[in-house]
Every structure is written in structure tokens, then in C-alpha cells.
Design goal:
Oligomer: single chain
Number of helices: 8
CATH architecture: 3-Layer(aba) Sandwich
Distance between the termini: 49 Å
Bound molecules: S-adenosylmethionine
Strand order of the largest sheet: 3-6-2-1-7-8-10-9
CATH class: Alpha Beta
Number of domains: 1
Length: 300
């Protein structure tokens, strides 16, 4: 009897069959357009957050002066990396991002300042009508530059964890303000995860970061997760976030030990990536009058 799959899995299987037959259709431009739109908007967010010193606050939370090797997941336009390097300009940084235009922008930023940078591009894109898929290749060289930027999707790249493991143990992992562009819903690599909302997407990437941190951090190493949203300005709200992160960390040896937040303002009068709230627990849909960057630290 023929097996019936859910539509997402069926599209993915069709793609594999079409790939084998060599009948994949011509690329659509949507993914490339969305990557470009996203970085252009995010640059406005980053500029606004930087002007309010959000990134230096985040960087100071992990005491970079005692650290040598950092992994940044989802580097955006590199403004966050700039804050890390301002704290300690000797840091060696590996940064990954699913959006190749973010990596190129970050490389431009640091090359122009004289930092040694390398961008590792290693994904073929495959298309099936409006859907796309990444075909990742293994990475065969160790990072030589101070800043190594790697095209990777934390959710679906099978080579990234073994590669990071081969580099040596990391002192810290940062994952700040994770979010993505609208075409991610058409990415076949992540169909099996059945992600149906922005909040679920963010949670999936962060969960993966907790698991990765367990593998690649030194003992005592720090994972820092920063999200933007309603200010956790009561004990109830703080407990809600801490408990959610303890739950995320529960499948690892990491221990959540710090929550702190910084009040900030969203960009106004600028084209930017809008904040997507995930209302739940004790958080209220209507109480976004006071916004905060909330930093969570977990220790291995
Ligand atoms: C909202 S931006 C934040 C950028 C930077 N961390 C900052 O704070 O300015 C989120 C970044 O994460 C990247 N990203 C989202 N999902 C990802 C994934 N699964 N793997 C790697 N990068 C991802 C996006 O492409 C984007 O550049």
C-alpha cells in the first residue's frame, strides 16, 4: 500500500525525487529578495538599538575580557559582534547565519576596519516552485582569521555541530534577538520540524542552541540568549521567563543562572524588522508599553 505523508513531507520527498531525476525547476527570486529586504531593514533596527547602547549592554553581560573564542548564532549585520569586539578586540569569533546577505554585510563591516575576516559559503540552493532547500557541504578548513563567518542554518545544517566541535571548546555562545525573514516558511530543510509561528521558530533555534552549547562549550562556558519584548518588571514575569528557559535547558547539563533586562525603544519612522510578540504564560498581549531586551545566561 502506498504511504500517505503530510503535505510538507510530501513536497520534500517530491523535491528529492525531482533532484534525482534532474527535473528541478529554475530558481525563483523570492528567497534572494527576502534576504536582501531583511538585511536592509535589520540595519535600521541595529542602528537604533546600538544608539541606545543595547549591544554594549549585552556584550558586558558576558564579560568578554575573560574570553577567547565565541560563537555567535545569527549575526545579522554584525553590529552585535562590533560590541563584543569593543569589549575585547582580541576575541576570536565564529559567526553563523542563514541569510548570506547578513554575512556579506558583516564581512564588509569588519574588513573595512582591518579585521581579518573570512566568509565560508558552502550551500547550494535548490528550488521547487515556491519552495527552496539548502544543500550544505562539509567544511574542511579550520578558521584562520579572527572573524570567521559561516553560511549555515542551525536548524538543518548537518555539518555545523561536528565542525564547531573540531575547532575546540568555546568560551561563550551568543544568540541575540533571533528572528527571520518570511521565506523561511518555504524552506524544505525545516519542514520536518512543523514550525507554524515566529515564536515556535525562535524557540526551535534557541533549543538547538542549548543542545549545541552542551556539546561545544568549555566547562563553565556561557550561553547568552537575548530576546526583545515586554519588560519583565515583576517577579511573576521574571519567573515566567526563567522557568521557560530552565525548561529549554532541561535536556542539557546547562544551568540557567541570570536574568537581566534593559529598557529600550523600537525604531520609529524607519523601515525595520517588527517585533513579533509571543504572548503566553503571564505575559499580556496589551502590555507592551515598556519594552526590554532581556538577557538570559546559562552556564555549562
Ligand atoms: C533579528 S536578527 C539579529 C541579528 C543580531 N544577532 C543582532 O542582535 O543584531 C536574527 C538573525 O538570525 C539569523 N537566523 C535566523 N534563523 C537562523 C538559523 N536557523 N540559523 C542561523 N541563523 C539564523 C537571521 O538570518 C538574522 O540575521
Amino acid at each position: 500500500m502506498e504511504r500517505i505523508f503530510d503535505p510538507a513531507t510530501q513536497i520534500f520527498l517530491n523535491l528529492i525525487v525531482n533532484l534525482q531525476k534532474g527535473t528541478i525547476q529554475m530558481p525563483n527570486k523570492k528567497l534572494k529578495e527576502e534576504h536582501q529586504i531583511y538585511i536592509n531593514k535589520w540595519k535600521n533596527n541595529a542602528e537604533t538599538f546600538d544608539a541606545q547602547k543595547c549591544y554594549s549592554w549585552m556584550a558586558q553581560k558576558i564579560s568578554t575580557n575573560q574570553k577567547k573564542l565565541i560563537l555567535d548564532i545569527g549575526c545579522g549585520d554584525g553590529t552585535g559582534l562590533q560590541a563584543l569586539l569593543s569589549e575585547n578586540d582580541k576575541l576570536k569569533i565564529i559567526a553563523i547565519d542563514e541569510n548570506i546577505d547578513c554575512l556579506k554585510e558583516t564581512q564588509r563591516k569588519f574588513s573595512s576596519q582591518g579585521f581579518g575576516t573570512e566568509l565560508i559559503e558552502r550551500c547550494d540552493l535548490i528550488y521547487d516552485n515556491k519552495y527552496h532547500g539548502y544543500n550544505f557541504k562539509s567544511i574542511d578548513k579550520l578558521p584562520e582569521q579572527q572573524i570567521t563567518l559561516i553560511h549555515s542554518d542551525l536548524l538543518s545544517d548537518p555539518y555545523i555541530e561536528p565542525y564547531l566541535n573540531s575547532i575546540g571548546k568555546f568560551d561563550a555562545i551568543t544568540i541575540w534577538l533571533i528572528g527571520t525573514h518570511t521565506e523561511r516558511r518555504h524552506c524544505m530543510n525545516i519542514f520536518p520540524l512543523n514550525i507554524t509561528s515566529d515564536a515556535q521558530y525562535r524557540l526551535s533555534v534557541q533549543n538547538k542552541a542549548y543542545e549545541l552549547a552542551d556539546e561545544i562549550l568549555i566547562a563553565g562556558g556561557i550561553l547568552q540568549i537575548v530576546d526583545r519584548g515586554q519588560a519583565p518588571n515583576t517577579e511573576l514575569l521574571k519567573d515566567d521567563i526563567i522557568n521557560a528557559h530552565k525548561d529549554q535547558a532541561s535536556v542539557t547539563t546547562l544551568e540557567v543562572f541570570d536574568l537581566d533586562y534593559m529598557i529600550y525603544n523600537e525604531p520609529i519612522n524607519k523601515s525595520s524588522v517588527q517585533m513579533k510578540t509571543s504572548v503566553g504564560g503571564v505575559f499580556s498581549e496589551h502590555n507592551l508599553s515598556e519594552l526590554a531586551m532581556t538577557s538570559i545566561l546559562a552556564r555549562k
